[in-house]
Amino acid sequence: MPEETLNPPPELSPDTFSDLFEICRPRSNEERWTQINWIGELWEGRQMAARQKKPLFIWAMNGHPLGCV
User: Fold this and answer.
1) List of residues 6+ apart from 16 with CB closer than 8 A
2) What b/e sequence results for 16-42 when a residue is b if at least 16 CB atoms lie within 10 Å of its CB, and e otherwise?
3) Claim: this prediction has a pTM higher than 0.70
4) Residues 12-50 pLDDT 10s
5) CA distance 7 to 38
6) Domain boundaries, the chain
7) Are 50 and 39 in contact (CB under 8 A)?
């Protein structure tokens, strides 16, 4: 017999889908990083930083993006 869940997930049906979808949808204040004009090329970012005399922020990673290695 499966263990009873204290907080079971809501039933998914055509009637409940839109409400559940809205709960899961990111809010604008949660995704402010998307408002930054990111530069995808290292050399282009390096040149821009040098012209503006600003530091260069590099976000780099190695491995699977979800940490599943």
Assistant:
1) 10
2) eeeeeeeeeeeeeeeeeeeeeeeeeee
3) no
4) 898 889 988 888 888 878 778 788 888 889 999 999 999
5) 40
6) 10-69
7) no
